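I am writing to request your help with a piece of structural work I have in hand. I am sending you one protein, given as its amino acid sequence and as whole-number tokens for its backbone shapes. Kindly check, if you would, that the fold set down in the tokens agrees with what the sequence suggests. You will find the record immediately after this paragraph:
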Amino acid sequence: EALGVVLTEEQQRNRALLVADAKHLDSEAEIRRMFGSAAVKDKGRRLGAGSLGKRLTLSHPKANWPAMRAQAGIEMRAADLEAGQAEDPTGGSWFVMEHSGRFRSVQAEFLAAVMTHSADGVAAIAHHHPYHVDALLQLSEILKQTGGDFAEAGELVERALYAFEIGFAPRFSAVSGMARLDFRYVESRTLYLALFRHMQFMSRRGCWRTAFEVNKVLLSLDPVKDPYGALLTLDFHALKSRQYEYVCQFVSDWSWSSVDLPNWAFSRALAEFMMERQQGQGSATHSMELLMQAILKFPTVVPVLWSKANVGVDDVVLTHPYFQDEVIADTSAMTHMQLVVQLFVERHTPLYRTPE
């Protein structure tokens, strides 16, 4: 039972794949586990901004953050279910974000600054309204694209997540695997963006377990439609955080959307291979079978991945017609599968450069 809803066995299996571990959503705790407490600067965490009585999981306010004396003007309410959502196969509870009148007035100033390409205007809004989520996310992107302080850019995203968490509905639990957010509402989309950017910053810092847990939260908001393509990154973050059993379990149990994708086919084989090594198995029979299945299903991955990873493969293999794909001079004319293959190769190549 989740959020007062009795789940079927299928829903329970899928939900188990989405439940996030709150203790692993803290990137600084992950850094301390890897490098010791000396690696993390003490900023008096969970003191400055306050939590306004909320239990926080996605964000961890720091003492140097501006105090939040009132909510940021973004609040969450239970969604008015339509026929399609009422028959939601996931059994999840749906919510939407809303903006207050005060937030909308500031939003008008923010949009004016964006339309005039005024970085100073965006920075001024973030200064005077330190928890205006759109301004925080935009300023973070400006810092990232102009070569600014990446640590500060990541912290701005976390401040936006903090503002969201303060406005969460009492029954909304980001880590439960059952809380859904209606992407059709523009106000709701910013939370998707904030989670996606936070996941990217965690990856950049090498906080792979945190990125993995955030990825699960992002997918759980709408696991059927998956508007931010969380399925295209979840396997990668699972492998980087050494959650090999999760990858295999996901391919086996997930039924709310298709995992018939090259990243999951190859990642399942790689995860099985890593588990075989951990268990001290001399042979890699099962993982090789899975790899052959992946190659047979997505043959055009082979020449692109092997070339990118500098893996030596017999020319007879690479020149075989079975592995050839049509060369697309204009990337905008790529088919859906060609694009998915390219994304997979660009993201996963480092995993295939290891001696193993």
User: Anything to note?
Assistant: The chain has a mean pLDDT of 89. The radius of gyration is 22 Å. The beta strands are 74-78, 93-99, 179-181. The chain has 16 helices and three strands.
